[in-house]
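Quick one, tokens below. Sequence please?
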């Protein structure tokens, strides 16, 4: 395949970032090369925009193969149906989802914020002995697929899909006195940390997996922010680990900070 081309594979769809100078003929040639190298790929799309906004939607254009943007994707013994333009999904976080499921204990009640089509929720429910996993997402289209995915993985009794803004849902849960043993926060790149919502739904012993984006030299700042916001909420926390969970741009990373509320 030609150099300077980035590609993500989600099931039978390849999403390709072509160099800006590429002609239509060159794109189709590259698509045909992809079909030859990867027999499982049936559709090639061009990535023409970044993930944007609270709903984390991206824009792609059809290049070659089957004309669809809906796909069935498998990972960690689970299956997911999604539309690559209407919902956010990253196959690069597959190991993250598996790793976090390994930290969930028997009988835990788990909250997944910004849950999308429910990959974290479903992998945790499938791979751990959690009691209940609550999957919260603002994007109605993503929630439609989340409900389908819960059924596809036969987890209706274990996963609760909730559509709405995390702030509103957290306030509702707080009034209902719902608390969680584990809170997973795979946040998009937003200014608000949503740590207030996590803290009001936590109790002594709650483990929180918090994702943020920063420069390589700014990781300490993220940890200090967590400790500062915890202090503002009257909470003490213990940082368990900080892990780089992938690069998002040159010298910019997705950071995961695991901590426990004391």
């Amino acid at each position: 395949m030609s150099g300077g081309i980035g590609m993500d594979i989600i099931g039978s769809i390849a999403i390709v970032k072509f160099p800006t100078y590429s002609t239509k003929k060159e794109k189709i040639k590259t698509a045909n090369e992809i079909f030859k190298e990867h027999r499982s790929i049936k559709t090639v799309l061009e990535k023409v925009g970044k993930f944007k906004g609270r709903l984390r939607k991206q824009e792609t254009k059809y290049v070659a193969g089957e004309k669809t943007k809906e796909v069935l994707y498998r990972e960690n013994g689970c299956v997911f149906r999604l539309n690559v333009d209407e919902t956010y999904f990253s196959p690069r976080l597959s190991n993250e989802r598996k790793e976090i499921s390994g930290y969930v204990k028997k009988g835990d009640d788990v909250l997944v914020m910004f849950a999308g089509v429910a990959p974290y929720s479903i992998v945790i429910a499938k791979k751990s002995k959690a009691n209940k996993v609550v999957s919260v997402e603002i994007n109605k289209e993503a929630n439609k697929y989340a409900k389908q995915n819960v059924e596809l993985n036969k987890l209706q009794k274990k996963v609760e899909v909730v559509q709405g803004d995390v702030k509103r849902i957290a306030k509702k849960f707080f009034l209902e006195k719902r608390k969680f043993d584990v809170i997973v926060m795979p946040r998009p790149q937003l200014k608000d940390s949503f740590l207030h919502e996590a803290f009001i739904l936590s109790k002594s012993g709650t483990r929180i997996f918090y994702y943020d984006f920063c420069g390589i030299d700014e990781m300490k700042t993220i940890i200090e922010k967590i400790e500062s916001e915890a202090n503002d909420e009257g909470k003490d926390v213990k940082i368990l680990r900080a892990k780089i969970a992938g690069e998002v741009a040159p010298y910019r990373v997705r950071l995961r900070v695991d901590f426990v509320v004391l």
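The chain has two domains: 6-68, 88-261. The first strand starts at residue 6 and ends at 10.
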